[in-house]
Amino acid sequence: MVAKISRSIVSRLNKSQIKRLAFIGIHSKGVPLAHKIAEAVNSRLGVEIPVAHLDISMYRDDIGIRKTLPNILPTEVPFDLDEKVIILVDDVLSTGRTIRAALDAITDYGRPDLIRLAVLIDRGGQEFPVKADFFGAKVNVRKNQRVTVLWEHDGMPPGVYLLPGKDNSGEHGK
Amino acid sequence: MTSIWTKKDLLSIYDLSAGELVLLLDTAAEFKKVSERRVKKVPALRGTTVVNFFVEPSTRTRISFELAEQRLSADIINVSGMTSSLTKGESLLDTARNIQSLQADIIVMRHSAAGAQNFLADRLSCGIVNAGDGSHSHPTQALLDIFTILQKKGRIKGLNVAIVGDILHSRVARSDIWGLLKLGANVTIGGPATLVPKEFEEIGVRVCHNLKDAIEGADVVNLLRIQHERQKAAFFPSINEYANIFGLNEDTLKYLGKDALVMHPGPINRGVELASSIADGAQSVILEQVTNGLAVRMAVLYLIAGVL
Known about the structure:
Helix content of chain A is 26%, strand content 26%. By secondary structure, chain A is of the alpha/beta class. Chain B folds into two domains: 18-137 and 290-305, Aspartate/ornithine carbamoyltransferase (Rossmann fold, 3-Layer(aba) Sandwich); 139-289, Rossmann fold (3-Layer(aba) Sandwich), CATH 3.40.50.1370. Chain A binds chain B through residues 55, 57-60, 63-64, 66-69, 71-75, 104-105, 107-110, and chain B through 2, 4-6, 23, 26-27, 29-30, 33-34, 37-39, 41-45, 47-48, 105, 302-303, 305-308.
């Protein structure tokens, strides 16, 4: 799925856009995915695309509504965002609220020319006008199921799991 | 060892676990980055009202809190003791209840009486942040001191930290001591016996009554101001004598390693506890403490707003 995403990114961006390309992974699960997609693009094109890490906690729309806040993870934006072509990366697209928060955060860092969204799984159920430009798979998932993406370092066989439990909204940071 | 934040109030460092301290410090590190961006503001406290209720005078702490609140997008009201109805005989609790009735979510409060904030925290549903109560506690100052040490030294555990000056009247010293001990630092307090009571040994700090013993081998020295406003009796013969015996100056700086940090919570009495050349010198992190105060206060307000 990572190969599929990186292939579509390369085929749909022009040369000038590739030159200004940068990835921003949303904590926590979007960060390893952003690095994997960047590596795939790098080896395909022989380039070195920068990767930023973004925590969106300060931009959430449910502070004071949730019982507890997830702990803030380190935001690292090691490049200037002005005029960049940004691929925003998260593991699962659900309500779209995380993406709304991420867009607000990104525009506080600079003014990219273009922002596109890449996710591994689009589980449907968007509550905001947000769609994935690049995705590994689209899955229709019921409200009472959650999609969990595990990587090698998570200590279980890597893969995409469909588990019973609450939906994915607001699971960021756990 | 980080924890999840569950407290509606920040009253004292003594109340916090090591895990809660680490969480606050980690969160502050992220808020420090916000102040380094082009847009130095986040929407985290949009719709939250914060009242700065300063019954005792303060400039740097009040300004730091106010700027922290602005950078979190909170709505802010400032009430000072001198201009409030406290001067008309209204009780503290009544004034505070009235503030809460205006839908205030958090009250940041300074008071000259130790425990005033604890008294209100038990009686009000809004969050209370202690911005200094008498000689008792000043948790955000301790957090910014510890945050500054952590950013400069990369750790707290095992560091030798000396706090020199008027320990007896200092809420900063009390707060620093608890925080540093909880995170595993070795703490020494130094100053004249009248201002540095032996009783502090019972909580695990080393007590010294001369400057050389107190600061030799220290990784950090935190100098405290002689608090004229809290001293009714004479605790030492004269300011000059104090400066000669306990002041950090070019002569006494030699007891300190070249890598040691010099800290001061401000306001400095230049030439008394600290010589001007050292306050402005290479080892001084005094102005960084002020910058870090903003980050730490943003972290505190953010975490408290998250549980209200």
